[in-house]
Specification:
The chain is mainly α and about 350 residues long. The chain has 15 helices and 5 strands. It folds into 2 domains: about 120 residues, DNA polymerase, domain 1 (Orthogonal Bundle); about 220 residues, Orthogonal Bundle (hpI Integrase, Chain A). It has a 3-stranded antiparallel beta sheet. It has a two-stranded antiparallel sheet with strand order 4-5. A hairpin with a 5-residue loop joins β2 and β3. The N and C termini lie far apart (about 60 Å). This is Tyrosine-type recombinase/integrase. Pfam families: Phage_int_SAM_1, Phage_integrase. GO terms for molecular function: DNA binding. Keywords: DNA integration, DNA recombination, DNA-binding.
Length: about 350
């Protein structure tokens, strides 16, 4: 006996959304598609648990403002999800509901009602940590005694100055870092959704890159990965675990003089760069471009600061002794039209 879904059109649209629309039309990568799939599956799990609606009995009308709001509350109460996770699930459901509307599976009124659902406020602001400029300086200096000092310093310097995700940095090829006419450099990233962005780098980073290549890439083969490790005698892409081990050593060394140093992890450098740019008065849209955020709402997190953090934000990176790199004073690209155009993909 063949089992039929109550709303076969919805089942068909789910399959098309995952297998055709996201990868083919929207050019989304596997991680993004997996996220959509997981969010929709969670919503189905909620419907089964709370409304006894299964994947066979659910209908397009179950994707409603009321159900999604209650789903968000369920994520918090039953799964102990924090605000960013809940908001991520909401964003995925909004995306799928937009597709349902385009395919006439839900009405415009239903879709507009779903769009009106507000994100959950993040109550974890007090736990939001980043490194001070001096902390970054000490962490970079702590690599001086490492066996692979040249590599480790360049890797961490690039993580900080670019503000990139760890996988973006570890996926770089030599051809992705290019000198500019003024002795600085641009780094080309291909982030989430294979989106291309260009981030300007300082003269100091370019100098470190040249020193690094002299030791680790003497042949300068452009297609080679910038960072690699050896496994079974073969060069392979460096793993994030390798980076974590480097940071464990840095943390132990810095805590000898600064026991209050926060725990080091690769994403902390991205967060730190964003906060330093924000404190220097860089507009949020520019920071959003810098970080490769597809939605500026993600970047607005850095503006949701406590009164203490706001006072900190008044202390701009205004002179060289408050800068990690000697030529990184305030926001050095603030009035550099060419650099901003490269950053925004206009050049």
């Amino acid at each position: 006996m063949r089992i039929k879904a109550k709303d076969p059109h919805l089942v068909s649209l789910m399959g098309e959304f995952m297998r055709i629309y996201l990868p083919g039309v929207r050019n989304r990568d596997k991680d993004t598609i997996d996220s959509y799939r997981y969010s929709i599956n969670l919503f189905v799990t909620y419907l089964e648990s709370e409304q006894k609606v299964t994947v066979l009995t659910m209908q397009s009308s179950d994707f409603s403002q009321k159900n999604i709001v209650e789903f968000m509350a369920w994520l918090k109460s039953e799964r102990n999800n924090v605000a960013p996770t809940i908001n991520h699930r909401l964003s995925d459901l909004r995306g799928f509901c937009k597709y349902l509307y385009k395919k006439n599976a839900i009405s415009l009124d239903a879709y507009e009602a779903i769009r009106e659902i507000s994100d959950v406020d993040d109550e974890r602001i007090l736990d939001f940590t980043w490194l001070s400029v001096n902390d970054v300086y000490l962490v970079l200096k702590s690599t001086d005694s490492n066996r692979e000092a040249v590599r480790d310093r360049f890797l961490l310097s690039l993580l900080y100055e670019s503000g990139a995700r760890i996988n973006e940095v570890l996926s770089l090829k030599l051809l992705d870092i290019k000198a500019t006419s003024n002795g600085e450099a641009d780094v080309h990233f291909y982030g989430k959704g294979k989106k291309h962005r260009i981030t300007p780098l300082s003269k100091e980073i370019w100098s470190q890159f040249e020193d690094y290549c002299e030791k680790y890439h003497p042949d300068k083969t452009s297609e080679n990965l910038v960072f690699y490790s050896f496994r079974n005698g073969q060069k392979n892409k460096m793993s994030s675990d390798n980076v974590s081990r480097i940071l464990v050593g840095c943390e132990a060394e810095v805590r000898k003089s600064n026991p209050d140093l926060v725990h080091l992890h690769s994403h902390l450098f991205r967060r730190t760069r964003a906060m330093h740019l924000y404190q220097a008065g860089v507009p949020l849209p520019t920071i959003s471009e810098w970080l490769g955020h597809s939605n500026i709402e993600t970047t607005r997190f850095y503006a949701k600061v406590t009164e203490e953090m706001k006072r900190e934000a008044l202390h701009k990176l205004s002179d060289s002794d408050r800068s990690v790199f000697k030529d990184d004073v305030v926001f050095k690209y603030a009035n550099d039209e060419d650099a901003i155009k490269r950053l925004c993909g206009l050049k």
